[in-house]
Design a protein that fits this description.
The chain has about 900 residues and is of the alpha+beta class. Among the domains are: about 1-50; about 170-345, Transferase(Phosphotransferase) domain 1 (Transferase(Phosphotransferase), domain 1, Orthogonal Bundle); about 405-585, no CATH class. It contains 31 helices and 19 strands. The strands form four sheets. An eight-stranded antiparallel beta sheet has the order 12-13-14-15-19-18-17-16, with helices on one face. Strands 1-2-3-4-6-5 form a six-stranded antiparallel beta sheet. A hairpin with a 4-residue loop joins strand 14 (about 480-485) and strand 15. The longest helix is centred in the last third of the chain and has 34 residues, at about 660-690. The model is unreliable at about 50-75, about 230-245, about 285-290, about 500-515 and about 585-595 (pLDDT under 50).
C-alpha cells in the first residue's frame, strides 16, 4: 500500500470519526467518492475503535499516521531512500515512518534475519551529533526489558550513520492523544504500569532517559508500551549536559540547570500520566494537574510526581506503579508520602521467600550444626571441667542421709537445687596458675558447683523477685529450718541450722541420741582427713545460738597447696554450723564486670529515661492513629503468657493463702513486662514502618497469623541457620580454649534447668520472652543511632559495641574477655545485618535462638540430663523443619496451579 493511499485513508477516517453516528455513513460515502475498497478500510478502522489494542495501534492506522506527517510534495523531495532501496546489502527500505530532530526513521526488512526493523538515520555528520548517536546505542543496549525498545546495531550507508532497532508496529502515544484526547482510566493505568516497568528497568542500570514524553513512547498492535529514543539519555554519574531534553517535560531542577537525577524522570512521568488521563499537560509553574474527574488516588500520585522538591517525589518508577490503584499497597503509601498501615506492609509483594533448594540447604545446615554445637558447648562450659555425675534427686537423698546422721529429722517440706558459687576459686586459679594440679576442678574440691538442700517444719514463703522460688538464701532462716550445701560428689560443704529452743523439738532427736563428738561426724561427712588440720582461731559467727565452736586450718590433700579453713559450732552437742573456706575466697567472686556506683546510676537513669520516653511516644502515636495496636497487643500477649508460664512453673507453691500473694506477684510482674514491651513497640514500630517498611513485611504477616506464608517461613529459617552457624564458630573457639588453656575461665552454666523439668520449661519460656524483649530493645537502639548517625554501618557498629560492654567486663582473663567481646560484637552486627537484609522477623528468630542456646548446661548428650539437651536442640530444629515444609508446600501448590 502506497503512502498516498494511507494518507487518503487517514483523511476519510478523521472526517468520519468526529461526525455524529447518525450522519457518519453519509460523510463516508461523500469522502470515498465511490471507492468501495477505501470505504471498507475506513469502516474497519471505525469498527475496531471499540477494541482498545487494535484501536490504539492498528498497523494500518499507525502507518497512515506516519505517512501523513509530510505532504506529498515534501515526501517526494526530502526522502533520502525510496521504498525498495537495499542498504548495506542487508536492509530493504519499505517506507518512511517519520522524522524529527534526531533524524529520519524508516521501516525496513532485515534480509539476513527475515524480520522487520526500524532504521534511524542521523541527518548531520557533526562530531557532537555522532557522539550523541553512539551514546544512544551504548545506553539503550544496557537496558533489556519488554517495555523498552531494543537497539540492535549501528552502521553507515550513503555517508549517513544509522542504527537498527526493534520495529514497533503501531503509533506513538503523542499521536494517539492528539486523535482521541485522553484514555479511559483503566486503559491509562494499564499503559502507565508498563511505562513504569520500562523506566524502572532503565533506572536499575543507572540510565536516566532525560527526554521522556509521549512522542518517545510507542504502542504496538497489542497495546504494549515501548520506551524509545535514548539519544540524550545517560548514566546518572556521567551526565554533564543538563540542558538537553524537551522543555515542556523537564523538571524544575533540570530547567534551572542544577542537577539531573532519577527523580527528574519521575517528574516527566507525572506529566505523561496527567496527559494519559486528562489529555493535557499540567502548568509547569505549579505541581497541580488541575481539576480531574479520575480517581483521587491517581491524582495524589501525579501530584507527588510533580512536586518541585525532588526529595518529595516517589523514590522510583516502581513506587509510582505500586501507588496506582491495584498496585503494591506498601509502595503506594510510600509514594503518596504516607506511613503505610500494617496491613499494607503485610500485603506488600516486594520481597520473596527462599527457593526450595535454598531452603533445603539451610535445613541441612541446621541438622549439621546442631550436634556440633552440642559437643562444643559441652566442652566450653564449666560442666566440662567439673562434670555433674549425680542428678538432683540423688543428691537430695544424700542430703537427707547427712541430716539424719547429724541428728535432724527429715521434715515434710523440703527444697533443693544446684548452685554455682565457685567463681572465687576460678579467679584464684587464674592468678596462681601453679597453685593446683591440672584437672582440679573435676575433683569438686573446693566445689565450683554446689548442691543446696533446705528443710522446714512449715511451708516455705519464698519472697525472691521476680519469681518467688526457694533458694539457699530465700526465704530467710527461721526456727526449725535447716540448710546445707554438698558438692557434686555428695560431700558436706556447709551447714546452717536453726533448731527449736526446747529439747525434743520438732527437728531434734532425743537427748540420748545426740552425737557426743559432732566434729568427727562433720569431718567424716565432708571427707576431710583430721590429721591434716590443726586447731585455729574461729573467724566466723554462726547464725544460730551455739555453746561450742571450733576452727581448723589445713589442706585437702598433700599435693594441694591451698590453705583450707574449717569452722564448726554446736548447741548442746547438736551441730548447728559448718563451713569450709580458703584463701581463694579473697578473690573477686562473681563473673560480673566491676561497675562503679556512678556507672550503675547512669545506666539506671538511661533505662528510666528510655521507659518514660517510650511511654510518651507510644501515647503520641496512639493519639495520631499511627500505632499498630494489634501488633502491640499480640507481642504483649505473647510476653505476658511466656512470663506468667515461666513464673508459675518456676515458683515454689504452697497450699495456703500465701499462694495468692505468689499469684499476684507473678501477674503484676508479667503485666509490667508485657506493658513495657508493648510501649517500646508502639513507640518505635511506626517510625520503622515509615522509613524501613521492608523490615516489617514478614513480621506483619507473622503477627497477622499468616504463619504458613513462604516469606515468614523463609525468614525464620534464615535467622535460625545464620545464628546457629555463628554459635558453632564461637563455641568451637571457646571449647578449644577451655580444653587447652588451664587458666581459661570456663563459661558459666545455667544450672536452673537441672533442678527439675518444671524449672527447665520455666527457663525455656523465660529465654523466649527475653528474646522478644531483646529484639525490640535492639531495634529501639538501632533507630536512635541511625537518627543521629547517617552512615548505617557506623551506627550498627556502635550499637554492637554498646551491647557488648557487659561481655567485655565479665571475664577475669583479659585475652578471653577480648575474644568474647569481639565475638559478641560480631554476633550483634550479624543480627543487625539480618534486620537490614531480611527484616525484624529474621532478627527475632536469630535472637530467640541465641537465647535458647544460652541454656548451655543441658547440652550434653551423654549425661543424665540428655533428655533436656535434646529438647533444647529440637526447638530450633523443629522450627527449621516446619519452615522447610512451608516453603516446599508453597512450591507444590504453585506447580499444581500452573498444571491446572
Amino acid at each position: 500500500m502506497t503512502p498516498e493511499r494511507l494518507h487518503r485513508i487517514r483523511a476519510v477516517y478523521e472526517a468520519a470519526v468526529d461526525t455524529p453516528e447518525a450522519a457518519r455513513q453519509a460523510v463516508i460515502e461523500r469522502e470515498c467518492d465511490g471507492d468501495a475498497e477505501l470505504r471498507q478500510e475506513v469502516e474497519r478502522l471505525l469498527g475496531a475503535r471499540e477494541h482498545l489494542p487494535d484501536w490504539l495501534s492498528g498497523p494500518l492506522l499507525g502507518a497512515a499516521r506516519m505517512a501523513s506527517t509530510l505532504t506529498q510534495p515534501e515526501r517526494a523531495g526530502r526522502v533520502h531512500f525510496a521504498p525498495g532501496t537495499v542498504l548495506a546489502q542487508r536492509y530493504r527500505i519499505v517506507y518512511l515512518l517519520g522524522r524529527g530532530g534526531m533524524g529520519e526513521v524508516y521501516r525496513a526488512d532485515d534480509l539476513l534475519l527475515g524480520q522487520p526493523v526500524a532504521l534511524k538515520f542521523l541527518p548531520a555528520a557533526s562530531d557532537a551529533a555522532l557522539s550523541r548517536f553512539r551514546n544512544e546505542v551504548r545506553t539503550a543496549r544496557q537496558v533489556s526489558h519488554p517495555n523498552v525498545c531494543r537497539v540492535y546495531d549501528i552502521g553507515e550507508a550513503d555517508g549517513l550513520t544509522y542504527l537498527s532497532m526493534e520495529y514497533v508496529d503501531g503509533e506513538d502515544l503523542a499521536s494517539l492523544l492528539r486523535r482521541i484526547g485522553k484514555l479511559p482510566q483503566d486503559k491509562a493505568l494499564e499503559i502507565a504500569r508498563q511505562l513504569c516497568a520500562g523506566l524502572a528497568a532503565a533506572h536499575e542500570k543507572g540510565v536516566i532517559h532525560r527526554d521522556l514524553k509521549p512522542g518517545n513512547i510507542m504502542l504496538d498492535g497489542r497495546g504494549h508500551v515501548r520506551i524509545t529514543d535514548f539519544g540524550i539519555a545517560g548514566v546518572a554519574a556521567q551526565i554533564r549536559d543538563l540542558g538537553s531534553g524537551t522543555p515542556d517535560y523537564m523538571s524544575p531542577e533540570q530547567l534551572a540547570g542544577k542537577e539531573v537525577t532519577l527523580r527528574s524522570d519521575i517528574y516527566a512521568l507525572g506529566i505523561v500520566l496527567c496527559e494519559l488521563l486528562t489529555g493535557m499537560r499540567p502548568p509547569l509553574q505549579r505541581a497541580d494537574p488541575g481539576t480531574t474527574a479520575f480517581d483521587p488516588a491517581v491524582e495524589r500520585v501525579i501530584q507527588r510526581c510533580l512536586d518541585p522538591d525532588p526529595e518529595m517525589r516517589p523514590p522510583s518508577a516502581l513506587a509510582v506503579s505500586a501507588a496506582l490503584p491495584g498496585g503494591d499497597p506498601l509502595a503506594a503509601a510510600l509514594a503518596r508520602g504516607e506511613t503505610p498501615s500494617p496491613e499494607a506492609v503485610a500485603a506488600s509483594q516486594q520481597q520473596e521467600g527462599l527457593t526450595r533448594r535454598s531452603a533445603g540447604w539451610c535445613f541441612a545446615a541446621v541438622l549439621v550444626f546442631a550436634p556440633i554445637f552440642a559437643i562444643c558447648s559441652d566442652w566450653a562450659t564449666i560442666l566440662h571441667r567439673a562434670p555433674l555425675d549425680r542428678p538432683a534427686e540423688v543428691l537430695a537423698f544424700r542430703a537427707q542421709q547427712v541430716l539424719d546422721e547429724l541428728g535432724y529429722r527429715d521434715e515434710a517440706v523440703n527444697a533443693y537445687g544446684f548452685d554455682q558459687s565457685g567463681w572465687p576459686y576460678i579467679a584464684y586459679l587464674n592468678k596462681h596458675s601453679n597453685a593446683a594440679p591440672a584437672g582440679v576442678l573435676g575433683t569438686h574440691r573446693p566445689a565450683v558447683i554446689t548442691f543446696w538442700y533446705r528443710q522446714s517444719p512449715v511451708s516455705f514463703r519464698a519472697d525472691s523477685f521476680p519469681t518467688p522460688a526457694v533458694n539457699y538464701d530465700s526465704p530467710g532462716m527461721e526456727l526449725g529450718m535447716v540448710r546445707l550445701r554438698l558438692d557434686a560428689k555428695g560431700r558436706l560443704i556447709a551447714l546452717d541450722a536453726r533448731p527449736s529452743q526446747r529439747r525434743g523439738g520438732s527437728n531434734l532427736i532425743s537427748n540420748q541420741e545426740i552425737t557426743r563428738d559432732p566434729w568427727s561426724a562433720l569431718f567424716r561427712l565432708a571427707e576431710l582427713d583430721p590429721a591434716r588440720f590443726v586447731p585455729a582461731a574461729p573467724t566466723m559467727m554462726p547464725g544460730s545460738p551455739f555453746n561450742s565452736r571450733s576452727a581448723w586450718t589445713g589442706t585437702f590433700e598433700p599435693a594441694r597447696p591451698e590453705s583450707v579453713h574449717v569452722e564448726a559450732a554446736s548447741w548442746a552437742g547438736q551441730p548447728v554450723y559448718f563451713s569450709i573456706s580458703g584463701e581463694w575466697q579473697t578473690q573477686p567472686a562473681p563473673p560480673v564486670g566491676p561497675y562503679s556506683v556512678s556507672l550503675r546510676v547512669g545506666l539506671s537513669a538511661c533505662a528510666l529515661l528510655v521507659v518514660v520516653g517510650s511511654v510518651v511516644l507510644a501515647v503520641w502515636n496512639l493519639r495520631r492513629g499511627r500505632a499498630d495496636r494489634y501488633g502491640a497487643w499480640a507481642i504483649a500477649a505473647a510476653a505476658f503468657g511466656l512470663m506468667l508460664g515461666s513464673g508459675v512453673l518456676g515458683a515454689s507453691h504452697v497450699p495456703n493463702l500465701w499462694e495468692m500473694q505468689i499469684l499476684a506477684r507473678l501477674l503484676s510482674w508479667s503485666s509490667f513486662v508485657a506493658a513495657l514491651l508493648a510501649a517500646l513497640y508502639l513507640a518505635i514500630e511506626p517510625y520503622v514502618r515509615r522509613h524501613w517498611p521492608n523490615a516489617l513485611i514478614s513480621w506483619s504477616r507473622f503477627r497477622a497469623g499468616r504463619i504458613r506464608d513462604p516469606l515468614v517461613a523463609s525468614h525464620l529459617l534464615i535467622g535460625i541457620t545464620t545464628v546457629l552457624a555463628f554459635e558453632v564458630t564461637q563455641w568451637a573457639l571457646l571449647a578449644a580454649g577451655n580444653r587447652t588453656i588451664r587458666t581459661w575461665q570456663p563459661i558459666p552454666a545455667l544450672l536452673e534447668p537441672l533442678n527439675g523439668y518444671g524449672r527447665f520449661v520455666a527457663e525455656l519460656c523465660a529465654e523466649v520472652a527475653a528474646g522478644f524483649f531483646s529484639s525490640i530493645a535492639l531495634l529501639l537502639l538501632v533507630v536512635l543511632m541511625r537518627i543521629f548517625i547517617k552512615r548505617l554501618w557506623l551506627a550498627d557498629l556502635l550499637v554492637a559495641g554498646l551491647v557488648s560492654i557487659g561481655v567485655l567486663l565479665s571475664y577475669i582473663n583479659p585475652w578471653q574477655s577480648a575474644i568474647a567481646g569481639a565475638m559478641n560484637i560480631a554476633l550483634t552486627y550479624l543480627v543487625l545485618w539480618l534486620l537490614r537484609r531480611f527484616g525484624l522477623l529474621s532478627a527475632l528468630a536469630a535472637i530467640v535462638t541465641n537465647q535458647i542456646l544460652t541454656m548451655t548446661a543441658p547440652i550434653a548428650l551423654s549425661s543424665w540430663y540428655a533428655g533436656r539437651s535434646l529438647v533444647i536442640l529440637a526447638v530450633p530444629a523443629a522450627v527449621a523443619a516446619w519452615s522447610l515444609w512451608v516453603v516446599l508446600s508453597a512450591y507444590r501448590r504453585e506447580r499444581r496451579h500452573w498444571a491446572t
